[in-house]
Structure formats: C-alpha cells, structure tokens
C-alpha cells in the first residue's frame, strides 16, 4: 500500500502494516487513485533498475511483499483533482458520441514533489490504466515556446524583454503539384492568421506569435534548443531521430517541433509541467517525484528515490520569463483565468496547428499545474472557441489556493536582484529618438525589464523623420505647400514577398527610394511601391477603404516644365559679370 509523506511523518515510529494482498485484478482490491497507479509503476521500474528484478517480479513484490511505499502525494490536492475530474460540468460537451478527455498534474516547484494526478475524466474503475497525464504524449503547441525558445535565448544573451523581430512570414513553401510556383504558401501562420510587423519579444510571448518564435529559434539554433529541452529539462519524449517503416526519417530537432510545438509524438503532461518549475523556482529544475522510499516488510529501507535538482537558468532569466508569462494571463491568450485577480499567476496556453490539443501550463508562487484537453484519438476541437484547459486549471487552482487566500496576504512573484526597468521604442527595442514620438500611431515608448548588462544604450534607428502633407494625407515632396507639411516618424522595413501578405503596419513603413523611381498616382499603396519588380510585394494593410498613411501625395505633383524651343535659347553674354557676382549672391 502507498501512503503519503504527510501520513508517514505523522506515523513515524509506529508499527505500520501497509501491504497489498493479491493482484489488482482481484475484486477484493479497491480501485487505486491515478496517483497510486503512477507510484506503483515508478516503484516497479525502480526495483528493476536498482535491484535487478524483472517487471513481473517487481509487481508481485509490490502486491504481496508487505511493502510500505512512502509517497509525496498531498491528499488534499489529489482529492481536489478527483472531484474536478469526475464532474462533467467542468468540461464542455461536444456533439460527438465520444467526448474529449483531459489530464492534470500539480507539482510543488520548490521540491519537485508531484502532489496530485488526474489521468483522465470520469470515475476510475480499474487499476494500472493508461494514464493520459504520465503515459500519453501529445504535441504541446505554443506551450513549448517558453522552454525551447524564449528561456534559453534570454539565458544565452540573444534576446531581451524588448528585443524586436518582424512578425512576417519566415519563408514561403509550394505544393508539390505547383511546379510553376504560382501559389506561394506563407509559413508559419499565426493564430489568428494575421501578421503585425515589428513586434517585441514580450508581446510575441503574450500573443503567442509563431513567426517571432521561429526567427529567434533560427538565431538560437535547433541544436542548442534541443539540448536545452532534452538534456537540461529532461523532456525525454523529444525525438532526436527515428526511421519509420519505408525508410522515412523523423526528428523533433527542427524548427516546427521546437518553435511551434508540432512534435512527431509529443510530450507527457508530467514532463512539460515539471519543466515549468524553472520559472517558479528561480531557475532551478527539480526532478519530479511521486514517491520517497520503499520499506520492506521489516521496515527496512529497500530502495530510495533521491532528490535531484540543478540550476538551468539564472534567477534573472526566471524573473523575466515570469513577467512575460504574467502578461499572457493579464492581457494575452489566457485572460479567462480568474485566479489572477486574487494571487499572482503566470502561464502559457498551447494549441496545435490542427487544433487537436489544448494546453495550459500555469503557476503561482506556490504551485505549478498543467492541464491538457483533447480527444484520446486525436480529432479537431475547432468547434470550441475557448480553452477548456485554462478553465479547468482555474477551477483546480482556485480551490487549492482557497486556504492560502483566506489566511491573509498571499506571496507574490519576486523580481530577482539585478533587474532594472527602462523606457524604449517598441519598434526597435532601443532608446527613444525624436522620430519615435512622432509616429502617427502615437508615442512608441514603453517600459520593459532588463538586466544591467542588457538595458538599452543605443538610440532608435528604426524610425525615420519624413515630411507629410496634412492636406492630402500623403508623403510630401517639393510640390506640396509648406503650410501643410509636418514631420512624422515612419519605421524602416525592407520586406519583399512573392505574394502580397497582409501586415498591419505596412502603411507606416519607410523605404529608401532610388532616384528616378516612378511614384504611384493613387493612395492605395505605399509611396515606394515603384521599387518593387514583377511578383514582388511589400505587404498590404487593410485600411477599410481609407488612404494609406504612407501613400504618395500625388495631388501636388508639379507638372514637368516644358523645354524652351531651340530658337528661343539665349546664349550667355560673355561680358556678363555673373561669376564675379556669385560670392555676393551666396
């Protein structure tokens, strides 16, 4: 029989008779919780690894050997999960005969102790069932980005809270049958399917922007990212390489699996929830444990499960990640979490490209929890406009924090020493220049968080001062009346697409124009459109029928002066004292 560490501590020194009599298939044996099932599996494998048993011998010993297994379960946490997961009202009902499933894991980030497990919905009716929290692997979607992209890139000094990347397609692909390459397909796509152009790192995390994650991963490299998740975070489900029947090779060491979470097989809920500990625990990873030790029938220690912990990222990186993941909950993709109104909450949603998995991995100053939702046999969840994982997480965590909140002022996330705040331009990540304040969208100043070594020191070189004709609403030139001209700040952008891509900031972009470039005669395109060749596009903005802000002021273009007839050309007078008068004119 398994007991919790709390029970063990309270009964220490007493004569405990805790053993299994008979196999789990015996009708006289009660149904175990999901937690007890997991303990038995882990202890069985530990007996194999540490004492050389085969698996059948190990299970026989667990059931009939009178063992005492000291677990790390928190009975209150497990009871809460059991209550939530046996109540169908906590999950949406679809039109399918078979309803979606879900799993949940709760971990103490300070120790790595797994406090509770929900292996699936409904009443558990048998033992050692397939556990969707610990056995099943599912693609994590965007919930992997903080672990595989943002945390290592911050740690290695590649990005800051305010670094800026262009939210536009990274590449264009073509269908195999499109031999003429007439229909380029932008990759990656965002959800929703819109590109916003210049985007800060923290905003990319908040809105789960796919393009920015891919661009940063390209700088980080897939090798370093893969090493980070596989070796430092012990997410062993990441596949380095495998060959399928027919000789087809597959790997998770690639852009899509690491930046977008589109893995070949996926990760377990236990793996990814345990990995999020590093953000809640000052950068330290604790190996997740469900059991502490196993005592034989005589009360002697048979095997132990030693704690394992080590630093993965700095306290500063952990604080910066927590700040960004708090933004996800307060104004990003997880605003439905209500617990944030009572206690600090940070976390990340995850949705796979085919929408067969929904995730939320979140944490407070006390606990980290992961919830997965989807069909056991993958199929689309597209009819659900909200995330059941986020809602279930909120229900569970609200109950688990009830006593803490009732007791008084709860703990808050603490910013690590060495973090400073600074104001910067959100289009460059650098200090504000005059042009940043004159952006037609308003001042581009925002405050961010940095280490002393990464605080911005250079001024914005993205914004450019440009003359703008207020009477027509176009980029001004020498033919525009001076009384209607003012200066505005536009942003440099050098974008060339093989198809016209919708980018929301296109109408605020600036591009150097070569002498002699033809200017457009309408307000529906940027003034620099003449720089582009056939099948080249700068992107477009849906202006709802309004004129592009960076269109050309074609209304004031002066007519070309007519050349004088040759007979009317007056030769210069050799006696002219023009050259003598030049200094005076100057």
Feature tags:
586 residues; alpha+beta; Beta-lactamase; 4 domains; 5-stranded antiparallel sheet; 4-stranded mixed sheet; 16 helices; 26% helix; disordered C terminus
Describe the overall structure.
- This protein has 586 residues and is of the alpha+beta class.
- Helix content is 26%, strand content 18%.
- The protein contains 16 helices and 23 strands.
- It has helices at residues 5-11, 34-51, 55-64, 75-85, 145-155, 201-207, 210-220, 222-232, 255-260, 269-275, 277-280, 315-331, 388-400, 402-407, 434-437, 578-585; strands at 2-4, 68-71, 101-107, 114-118, 164-167, 171-173, 185-187, 197-200, 242-243, 249-250, 284-286, 291-295, 301-304, 309-311, 346-351, 358-363, 368-374, 419-425, 445-451, 463-469, 474-475, 485-492, 509-510.
Summed over residues and divided by their number, the pLDDT gives a mean of: 92
What is the count of helical runs? 16
The level of helicity is 25-40%
Q: State the CATH superfamily name of the largest domain.
A: DD-peptidase/beta-lactamase superfamily
Major sheet size, sense and barrel closure: 5 strands, antiparallel
Strand order within the widest sheet? 4-3-17-16-15
Query: What's the CATH class label of the largest domain?
Result: Alpha Beta
Q: Which structural category do the helix and sheet elements fall into? A: alpha+beta
What are the segments in which pLDDT stays under 50 over at least 5 consecutive residues?
11-27, 581-586
CATH architecture of the largest domain: 3-Layer(aba) Sandwich
Could you give the count of β-strands? Answer: 23
Task: Round the Cα radius of gyration to an integer and report it.
Answer: 31 Å
CATH topology of the largest domain: Beta-lactamase
What best-fitting shape do the alpha-carbon axes yield? elongated
Calculate the terminal CA-CA distance, rounded to whole Å: 102 Å
Count of discrete structural domains: 4
What proportion strand? Answer: 15-25%
